[in-house]
Design goal:
This is Fis family transcriptional regulator. It comes from Domibacillus antri. Pfam families: AAA_lid_14, PAS_9, Sigma54_activat. This protein is of the alpha/beta class. It has 25 helices and 29 strands. The chain folds into six domains: 94 residues, CBS-domain, CATH 3.10.580; 93 residues, PAS domain (Beta-Lactamase, 2-Layer Sandwich); 99 residues, PAS domain (Beta-Lactamase), CATH 3.30.450.20; 171 residues, P-loop containing nucleotide triphosphate hydrolases (Rossmann fold); 78 residues, Helicase, Ruva Protein, domain 3 (Orthogonal Bundle); 43 residues. The strands form eight sheets. Strands 14-13-18-17-16-15 form a six-stranded antiparallel β-sheet. α12 crosses α13, α19 packs across α21 and α23 packs across α24. The longest helix has 29 residues.
Length: 665
């Protein structure tokens, strides 16, 4: 039973002004409050016109021995939130606490006897009655010596110094603890508690066992090479083994009593494994760095109570700073991560194929970084670059990384559709709009791409009259079908691409300037493959794997072939490289593709002599030999001496003179 069970819940708040009028108050108790809603009194139903000054206490304060609630006839009790939980009379509290204390004393497993100033017993508990085989009527009011002949408890009643006495009984069968009962500074009686020797022996034996166990655990704790760190469920450090000074540079007394959050903030250790265990509510194993620069492998283990709450966290830390095993583990981890990376790359290549972005050059890295950034917004994008560089792949990449990735991605090559059909393809038409039109009409690509992405390739091929309508659609976000009058709202992200110089086309009047600026919000320029040779080898290997998988082949390219591919200028860019690899995989029967298998266009690369010195010769002769080889290669590749001079980095007159001298005309 708790105090709440005896509280009166019925009451009504009333203002001082209302109480003063004493009209229509009824007969229920009232709590009187002032204009600031503070409790200033109470009126009871027995005498409603009389204001009582109550005591006001929090519910947990009532059991405090220092509380002076007995000075009030009525006590108002507040709950932890400060609201009134109820009210109770002083006599009711006396009765409640008497019953509580009597129940507690009566239930103690030891013999408890209370005497008054005349050494008369006025309370005994159940243990006394059972031990002596008596009833309360046979005990209460009797002198203490009738049941404890050798008791000296009454000596406390007149003693001016001692308040507590502990003594062994004369028969050595137990221990008596005797305590004064004080009311303020006056002794009103005494309490005697009798402990049987057998009970004390059991306790002593258990204490000895616990002491022995504690000594063993302390020895293990302090002699451990590892640091053992114990915290409570709030991260407060309770115990640390002696090895902490060597590993962390702090003694145990410097750490005990401080929270792991405080120590982590000071940099004593990072990260705090105890904090991680408390957050994860499970076992944690992490490498920790100390303020002294050491690296520790730490295992944190939570200790939970029956309800699953963490009450302790025990950490075991092993110093791995100087162990070579750490390097081996890190190397193994790197290999493992690299293996996972290769597997993910292969999986991505197999599942995404044409949408894959395979590159190594910094130029493509900057392009993909920008593409990933603009994918998060709906800005119009203009992708420029030579034919075959991968403009469509980049546009698909942007769509797949945008919020529209689950919506349509429609691609249209504006240069591949006849001019008279392009408008109907883009904007659609109503039934009967023109001869040969479908009787049901047809939605355009703008409508089909609603909430998705529309990729307009070769945008520079769109005729000028159609450019006007395209600009209106981009500005107003709606289309009107051919033969129709009702505009259709569209929510489309536009990506365009061209291999032309649109700025030059605008200057020449072949492309509308206003449309150019509307499309060129975010420009992306993809460099030709010859300007990013670092990408040739990764792309070649990707296409080899792709077509081997597609055609169920197992072909490889020799090192010499890869060198030739690396040096080729690739006028057709990535598309040409892809086509060449597919042709080689399909047509070559040998498992290894050699230089001789390459198409005729690669003859220059195959016959290019390597420059090396196989024997000692005069330096002048060696220089002339190198110059002749360079001029021969340049003459085969370029038509004019001006271009040859530019590539070789000399004057045009020097080229002409040396060609004539070496008879290379």
């Amino acid at each position: 039973m708790n105090i709440e069970t005896i509280l009166h819940k019925e009451f009504t708040y009333i203002s001082e002004q209302q109480w003063g009028t004493q009209s229509d108050l009824g007969i229920q108790p009232y709590i009187i409050i002032d204009q600031d809603h503070r409790i200033v009194g109470m009126a009871m139903k027995e005498e409603i016109s009389k204001r009582i000054v109550p005591g006001i206490y929090m519910i947990e304060q009532l059991a405090n021995p220092q509380a002076n609630w007995e000075n009030y006839t009525v006590i108002i009790v507040l709950n932890p939130n400060g609201d009134v939980a109820g009210w109770v009379r002083r006599e009711e509290l006396y009765a409640f606490f008497y019953h509580q204390y009597r129940s507690i004393l009566f239930s103690l497993p030891h013999e408890v006897t209370v005497i008054d100033r005349q050494s008369r017993i006025f309370f005994t508990n159940q243990k006394v009655l059972a031990t002596h085989g008596v009833t309360p009527d046979q005990v209460i009011g009797k002198n203490i010596h009738q049941f404890y002949p050798n008791s000296t408890v009454e000596e406390l009643l007149t003693s001016s110094q001692e308040k507590n006495i502990v003594k062994i009984t004369d028969d050595k069968q137990g221990i008596l603890t005797q305590t004064k009962v004080m009311d303020k500074d006056e002794c009103t009686g005494a309490i005697q508690v009798y402990w049987e020797a057998e009970e004390i022996e059991d306790v002593a034996m258990n204490l000895n066992q616990f002491e022995s166990m504690a000594m063993d655990l302390k020895a293990i704790f302090e002699s451990s090479y590892d640091v053992i760190y114990v915290s409570d469920g709030q991260g407060l450090t309770l115990r640390v083994s002696a090895a902490c000074e060597k590993l962390w540079g702090y003694k145990d007394e410097d750490l005990v009593g401080k929270t792991v959050y405080e120590l982590e903030e000071k940099g004593v250790f990072k990260p705090s494994i105890t904090r991680m265990v408390l957050e994860k509510k499970d076992k944690v194993q992490v490498i920790q760095t100390t303020k002294t620069g050491r690296r520790l492998m730490v295992i944190g283990t939570p200790i939970k109570d029956n309800e699953g709450n963490i009450v302790r966290v025990v950490n075991a830390s092993r110093d791995i700073t100087g162990e070579s095993q750490l390097k081996s583990e890190l190397d193994d981890m790197k290999l493992l991560v690299e293996g996972y990376k290769q597997e993910l790359d292969q999986l991505r290549q197999m599942t995404q194929e044409s949408d894959s972005l395979v590159f190594k050059s910094e130029k493509m890295k900057s392009i993909t970084t920008l593409a990933r950034k603009v994918a998060e917004v709906d800005s119009t994008i203009l992708i420029q670059g030579e034919s075959g560089v991968g403009k469509e792949v980049i546009s698909s990449y942007i769509h797949q990384h945008s919020d529209r990735k689950n919506k349509p991605f429609i691609k249209v090559n504006c240069g591949a559709i006849p001019e008279n059909l392009l408008e109907s393809e883009l904007f659609g038409y109503e039934k009967g709009a023109f001869t040969g039109a479908s009787k049901h009409g047809k939605p355009g690509l703008f409508e089909l791409a609603h909430e998705g992405t529309l990729f307009l390739d070769e945008i520079g091929e769109v005729p000028l009259p159609l450019q006007v309508k395209l600009l209106r659609v981009l500005q107003e976000g709606e289309v009107v079908r051919i033969g129709g009058t009702k505009p259709v709202k569209t929510n489309v992200r536009i990506i365009t691409a061209t291999n032309r110089d649109l700025q030059e086309e605008t200057r020449l009047g072949h492309f509308r300037e206003d449309l150019y600026y509307r499309l060129n919000v975010v420009p992306l320029f993809i460099h030709p493959l010859r300007e990013r040779k670092e990408d040739i080898l990764p792309l070649a290997l990707f296409f080899i794997q792709k077509f081997n998988h597609k055609y169920k082949r197992d072909k490889t390219c020799s090192h010499e072939v890869l060198e030739v591919l690396q040096e080729y200028s690739w006028p057709g860019n990535v598309r040409e490289l892809q086509n060449i690899i597919e042709r080689l995989i399909v047509t070559i029967d040998q498992p290894v593709i050699e230089v001789d298998h390459l198409p005729e266009g690669f003859a220059v690369s195959k016959q290019s002599p390597s420059i090396y010195v196989s024997d000692i010769m005069p330096m002048k002769e060696a220089v002339e030999l190198v110059e002749k080889q360079l001029l021969t290669l340049a003459k085969q590749k370029f038509q004019t001496t001006v271009k040859m001079a530019e590539v070789l980095g000399v004057n045009q007159s020097t080229i002409s003179r040396k060609i004539s001298k070496m008879k290379l005309l």
